[in-house]
Task: inverse folding
């Protein structure tokens, strides 16, 4: 699967800001489910759940396949990993940046220290 | 890598003790010549003439990184908090990422702490922010559990 752009990742983060959509994700972690099955534990209409599913599908967090009359949803593990992997990327980038900063400052700090008797 | 998220959704990205006093570290984070020397880390270079620093709240910090493959990435940040030589907060309008850099005296050196928060516009409420902290941790757990399910063939 193509790597998510920043816009897509932002959409995924925004989608996860909603309690119902998080509950849908947690439910799908147990296995595939249709919109009707997803609607059951919630006091929401089929239509409302359908709208949440649409948002999750458009940002790539879930996928929906066709199986006769059924349209079961399932998690897109790749996209979920990208969302949770973002932190790791930022950590690596900053580790590398602070390493360079450390190297860059070492001679400067020495010369400052020499100036002060 | 362990995640550590504060209740308002800030993610601890890095901590480092530098053998340089806070005034020098502050200078490094706020002057173009220094920024060009280290911002790209070990993977990218930053041409000195690409760095622009307008050090005031609302001012812009811009630069361009060049990857080893020649790829160019212009970056643009807005200064949100400027508290010399203690704290610098930057937002990146393109990605919605807020970066909070704190400097604290540590012996003869400086402890640098970097936190980040990624908040799309409709997540910038207190409630959503609190929710985000939990989401990221649960996602991590979930992804790990699913990956191990797939390995054991139960999927």
Result:
């Amino acid at each position: 699967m193509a790597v998510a752009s920043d816009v897509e990742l932002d959409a995924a983060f925004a989608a996860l800001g909603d309690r119902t959509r998080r509950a849908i994700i947690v439910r799908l972690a147990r296995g595939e489910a249709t919109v009707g099955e997803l609607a059951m534990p919630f006091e929401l209409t089929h239509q409302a759940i359908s709208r949440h599913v649409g948002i999750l599908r458009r940002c790539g967090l879930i996928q929906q396949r066709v199986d006769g009359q059924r349209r079961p949803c399932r998690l897109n593990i790749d996209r979920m990993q990208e969302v949770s992997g973002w932190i790791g990327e930022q950590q690596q980038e900053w580790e590398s940046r602070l390493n360079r900063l450390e190297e860059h400052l070492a001679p400067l700090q020495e010369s400052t220290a020499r100036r002060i008797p | 890598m362990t995640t550590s998220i504060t209740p308002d959704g800030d993610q601890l990205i890095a901590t480092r003790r530098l053998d340089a006093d806070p005034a020098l570290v502050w200078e490094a984070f706020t002057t173009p010549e220094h920024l060009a020397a280290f911002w790209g880390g070990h993977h990218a270079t930053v041409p000195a003439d690409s760095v622009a620093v307008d050090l005031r709240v609302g001012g812009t910090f811009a630069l361009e990184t060049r990857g080893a493959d020649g790829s160019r990435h212009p970056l643009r940040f807005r200064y949100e908090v400027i508290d010399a030589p203690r704290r610098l907060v930057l937002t990146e309008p393109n990605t919605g990422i807020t970066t909070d850099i704190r400097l604290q005296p540590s012996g003869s050196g400086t402890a640098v702490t970097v936190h980040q928060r990624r908040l799309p516009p409709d997540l910038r409420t207190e409630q959503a922010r609190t929710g985000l902290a939990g989401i990221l941790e649960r996602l991590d757990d979930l992804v790990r559990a699913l990956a191990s399910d797939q390995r054991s063939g139960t999927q």
